[in-house]
Amino acid sequence: MDVMDETHDSKLRSWVEVDENSDFPIQNIPFGIYRPKGGGDLHVATAIGDYVLDLAHLDDAGLFNGTVVEGTEVFHEPTLNALMSMGRKAWKETRLVISRLLRQEVDDLRDNNDLKNMALISMNEVEMQLPVDIGDYTDFYSSKEHATNVGKMFRPDGEPLLPNWLHLPVAYHGRASSVVLSGTDIVRPKGQTKTPDASVPSFGNSERLDFELEMGVFIGAGNNLGEAVSVNAAEDHVFGLALVNDWSARDIQTWEYQPLGPFLAKNFATSISPWIITLEALEPFRCSGPKQDPKPLEYLRNTKDSTFDINLGIYLKTENMDSDQLISSSNYNYLYWNMSQQIAHHTITGCNLRTGDLLASGTISGPGKDNRGSMLELSWLWTKSIKLSNGDERKSLDDGDTVTLRGWCQGDGYRIGFGDCTGTILPPN
């Protein structure tokens, strides 16, 4: 990554009114796909305050002339993939143009009422879409605290961490077709389960439905088959990050996961937030992660800080509640294995990552009981109830429950937010 530039100035303010607690100040400039609620074409957009800014209309007006995106029509595409494939120079130039157009003192768009009225649309008047055509989805298992908690619960008489865990980022291949946009309802899955006292499995509805607090990394420019990506070059391939809820049917998972890991327990739905937050926006919040002991093998050794100070919260609302309630908080920088190490390990065999691939972090838990990123941990293997403000209690998710993930970086007078990642549990079909 390059050093910070003028887009990171904490004193920047926009001519668009932006609340101080908004996820989308002028310092953010995320990317997503929208269409008007009344119907219309899908276009690439950014968010500023409570508004969507249509980049296709700005492009048609010539405001991206002189940049590498000029003439490419990438903002007229129904996904971000074309823009993502162009690489960091295109992403930075696009971000810089948008930043300058939105500044309080710049009148090019501010005073062009016809263009402004066409391109700047209230979020209440749009429908966000899945931002990326996702070809492949890999889910990691990179939180030491989460892995340790799971080990203590399921292997109480043994070592919590399996022998390989401290030496490599563990992962499995997920189901890209069931990655859904925030706001999509989640139908309770069915499958095989087996209780410890049963001699044979039974078939039915999952009774141990869970969430997992994760962050997702979207690959921009990919790598060629047979060519590994070095740990220190990994960020050159990252377009940005989004919130991820890796919904999990724990009772199905417990029965099926040996010896090859999750399958049906994870393939029914994975929710992502609608806006992708670029690494450029996150640069002021770069920080170091946990100390790694033992020292990783050479191909996994970072020479720079490769994580970010992103506050994370899990909010739960039952059908009997008027508003959601924070039930756990965490931070992206708790992850033991960072995204650069994940990419380096993923490609060390020569695996070719492609534009639009999604790499999820795995559940992000922290050191405290209030920092656990799943219901499995919060209930400690369903032995303890989470008590909610209205008197409801939960050990796992009930039909009608709504889970919302939120993430943000706190700057000086502004915050870089991700927007909500929300899903409501529906009864099985």
Structural features, described:
The protein is α+β, with helices and mostly antiparallel strands and 429 residues long. Helices cover 16% and strands 25% of the residues. It has helices at 55-60, 81-85, 88-102, 113-119, 144-154, 250-256, 279-282, 339-347, 375-378; strands at residues 32-36, 43-48, 51-54, 120-122, 126-129, 137-140, 171-173, 179-181, 186-187, 190-193, 202-205, 209-210, 213-219, 238-245, 248-249, 270-272, 277-278, 286-287, 307-308, 311-317, 325-331, 358-360, 386-387, 393-394, 402-410, 415-417, 421-426. The protein folds into 2 domains: 6-129, SH3 type barrels (Roll); 137-426, Alpha-Beta Complex (Fumarylacetoacetate hydrolase, domain 2). The radius of gyration is 22 Å and the shape is globular. The chain has 9 helices and 27 strands. Strands 6, 7, 8, 13, 14, 16, 17 and 22 form an 8-stranded mixed β-sheet that branches. The N and C termini lie far apart (47 Å).
Strand and helix layout:
Blueprint: E1 32-36, E2 43-48, E3 51-54, H1 55-60, H2 81-85, H3 88-102, H4 113-119, E4 120-122, E5 126-129, E6 137-140, H5 144-154, E7 171-173, E8 179-181, E9 186-187, E10 190-193, E11 202-205, E12 209-210, E13 213-219, E14 238-245, E15 248-249, H6 250-256, E16 270-272, E17 277-278, H7 279-282, E18 286-287, E19 307-308, E20 311-317, E21 325-331, H8 339-347, E22 358-360, H9 375-378, E23 386-387, E24 393-394, E25 402-410, E26 415-417, E27 421-426
Parallel strand pairs: 6-22, 8-16, 9-27
Antiparallel strand pairs: 1-2, 1-5, 2-3, 3-4, 6-7, 10-11, 12-15, 13-14, 13-22, 14-16, 14-17, 18-19, 20-21, 20-25, 23-24, 25-26, 25-27
